[in-house]
Amino acid sequence: MSLAEITEKLHMAEDAAGRPRGSVSLIAVSKKQPDARVEAILQDGHRVFGENRVQEAAAKWPDFRARFDGIELHLIGPLQTNKARQAMELAQAIHSVDRPKLASTLARLAQEMGTCPELFIQVNTGEEPQKAGVLPAEADAFVKDCRGMDLPVAGLMCIPPVEEEPSLHFALLAKIAARNGLAGLSMGMSGDFERAVMQGATHVRVGSAIFGERDTG
Ligand SMILES: *Cc1c(COP(=O)(O)O)cnc(C)c1O
Fold first, then answer.
1. Is the whole-model pTM more than 0.70?
2. Which of 94, 118, 146, 213 is the most buried (most CB within 10 A)?
3. Which atom, in ligand 1's list, is nearest to the CA of 208?
4. Measured in angstroms, how far is the CA atom of residue 50 from the centroid of ligand 1?
């Protein structure tokens, strides 16, 4: 599908949810996509992108930034503490704050750098052992700890289990965010972003539906 078609679907979902058009930020997930496809979307005027690996983002985005103004980069994948500084230098938002050690590293670097990207805390709503994120029962305490470290927590992020109805997970994430006074909800991907918008998503992360299948090699 084209960017225009996805944007149209997003507008329909915003209408259906009774929310203003443009209230949901469309993050075009460009990981593992050929540069030509990313460039085409940039030429169309899109400026908000997501990458899941620091190394790949560092290889790709400085060149695009030199040629296109106003790029906003979101890091959406797991972040190792030894890549935290580079991530903070590259990205305007990090969606995968998922453990105390990462939070304290970000806090230390934020003090040192005098700036910090917007942060989303990843919640493992499906309580899947192999998946990153804090457990729902631990989320309130973790949000509090991050705020105690002066981290700019914008909201929460989740990746629902593949075999379950995502709306239930989106609703759970929205509930945890609401009780913690957090406005940001990073949820919804190619297959379910419209359902995420119904549940209050502020940021949807859409890759293959915009760009086509990824290079899996
Ligand atoms: C790859 C990825 C996406 C985008 O997935 P699509 O199904 O291609 O839309 C969204 N969120 C995260 C965390 C991802 O790693």
1. yes
2. 94
3. 8
4. 9
